[in-house]
Prior knowledge:
The structure holds two protein chains of two kinds.
Chain A: E1 4-5, E2 15-21, H1 25-36, E3 41-44, H2 66-69, H3 71-74, H4 76-84, E4 89-91, E5 94-100, E6 111-117, E7 120-131, E8 135-137, E9 150-152, H5 153-163, E10 165-167, E11 171-176, H6 178-189, E12 195-199, H7 207-210, H8 213-217, H9 221-235, E13 237-239, E14 244-248, E15 255-260, E16 263-268, E17 271-276, E18 278-280, H10 283-287, E19 292-295, E20 300-303, E21 316-318, H11 328-345, H12 351-369, H13 372-378, H14 383-386, E22 394-396, E23 401-402, H15 403-411, H16 417-424, H17 437-448, H18 452-455, H19 469-473, H20 479-486, H21 522-532
Helix pairs in contact in A: 1-4, 1-11, 5-6, 6-9, 11-12, 15-17
Chain B: E1 2-4, E2 11-16, E3 19-24, H1 29-35, E4 42-43, E5 50-51, E6 64-67, E7 70-74, E8 85-87, E9 89-90, E10 99-101, E11 104-106
Parallel strand pairs in B: 2-8, 4-9
Antiparallel strand pairs in B: 2-3, 4-5, 6-7, 6-8, 10-11
Amino acid sequence: MSLREVSTASDLREFYDVLIIGAGPAGMTAALEASAAGARVAVLDENPRPGGQIYRDITRNRPERKSYLGPDYWKGKQLAEVFDRSTIDYAPRATVWSLEGPDETVAKVRNVVGVTVGGSARMIEADAVVLATGAQERPMPVPGWTLQRVMTAGAAQIALKAAGAMPSEPIVLAGCGPLLYLLASQLIDAGVSDLTVLDTAQSTFRMSVLRHMPEFLRSPYVLKGIRLLFKVKCQACVVSGVRSIAITGTERAEGVRFTTAGGEQAIPASSVLLHQGVIPSTNLTNAAGCELRWNDEQRAFEPVTDNEGRSSRQGIYVAGDGSGIAGAQAAEVSGRIAALAALCDLGLVSVTAVAARLKPLHKQARRFLRGRAFLDVLYTPRPSFLAPLNPETVVCRCEEITVRKIREAIALRPPGPNQLKTFLRCGMGQCQGRLCAATVTEIMAEERKVSPGDVGTYRLRSPVKPVRLAELAHLPHTPRALKAVTGRDAVDHDTNETGHISCPDTDIASCGQVQRRRPTSAGSSLTMMASTWKGRPVSS
Amino acid sequence: MLKRLNRIEHLVQFSFDGTVVQAEQGDMLAIALLAAGIDHVRQSVVSGSPRGPYCLMGVCFECLVTVDGVQNRQACMVEVEDGMTVLSQKGAPAILGLEASEEGMVP
């Protein structure tokens, strides 16, 4: 018995008891827990191999890379091996673009997930959906951050894990947060010789930080953290107290200008890596209508969940960093907890059996959370990096909207970020607001002198990832939907029994040249829609 | 902007704007391009400014390229394949004979 790898959408079942999105630590443990209870389980993941970003490519990594990737990364190997021996349906290279909860008004009792695997789309039903979509890096908008050879620190770490590749030197690593020093340490172990760390963190000696110190001193992070800081400070050039940075260069990064209390300096760079912490990836949770709340210590929106990962929407559960940043070990535990909650709600495992399993898991979770609050508050980015002051800094990379334009539009008093979108197209580009949402909220909160929680964030809609119109056209459609689009009754159209439109020669790759034999059918209307869409992904 | 710490073991070759690029089997396209010294993959659709891969995990959509005729593929989410044809993207594509101007799309 082993994992059933699914490479085309048609090989997925129509229905699963528990459908898990993401194959990082939380997704893998959730799947194992649900599968052990006898549930029909599938894991949909965007990457070609399990592990998520934290254990990226752990299943095929070479032992010689252990020397620089470190033992924490290698811990993922065991979990990935257990996952590989399970009997779960696992769809790698799967893009989930929609999630709709049950809707009693149309007699829809289950969650429906829109997914593309192997170039074809499918709608899959599930009683329970566990979102284990992980985290993304908090955007760090500084002058020049759109230049080539500027990447996130996370990107450099992915290149190191996935391909054993290191950025060209001299490397400037700028920002704050635990990952900054972890990456610096990994680059040192991989043999880097010209590395400058520009630490933008605020002072440790703040009341808000010190009050979390006693708890931190009892946490598993203390020794590791001190060792890491010491090593990086001895072996790289570390500049603390950096208050502003600007990346210089015309097409690609050539250097970094930065200021400290001592004044301004400029250093050359061949690669610039930015990082100021990680925030939950909430695109799918947000689009599914799950309620979000502002976490002031982590300075990010996260889905509202109960202790067992239940979101505000029935049948949708959130596990791992996607429900609040807590790290890989905590994610493993929260994946199990969310799966048990789902199994209990579905009646697949008895309440008493679940309660007995949950008790030790909650205890573990508390242990992994110890010391987090200290790190969160210590590494809260400086206000000027959250809501940039320089008016020419680009905030929305896709639509190239600057701080100046955003502040000018806020002065016109739009009610919130959603209306700002319509003023500026900020957040309406191909990344769908992933790289500007946090900054827009921060700028608006600063201008209005209120909490970012009161400002809110973009309301997202499916599809949350680009999906080709040809794929949508090939999905089964209800007679009502066909009538809405074409103005004709469904009997007029080439629909087969399952409601699929017969549209054999629609292909977006050549949509401009598609010729329909009978240009009056529903298929051709959809083909025409596809042909007017060129160059840009479908976005909300 | 990336350099490999190990030599390529299982060679895969693809073309980028007509140039042959060598990569390791299983590499993601964006990483393979950066490791081959290619850090320019497209011009932005608004101002035409040069862009390269930024997040390498499917979030930023900066690495959009045309792969085997399909536009707007995220290079960081596509695995390299032998014989793949990859093209950079240059600004906003023309739509049905319209041209981009400062006022928007004009015939």
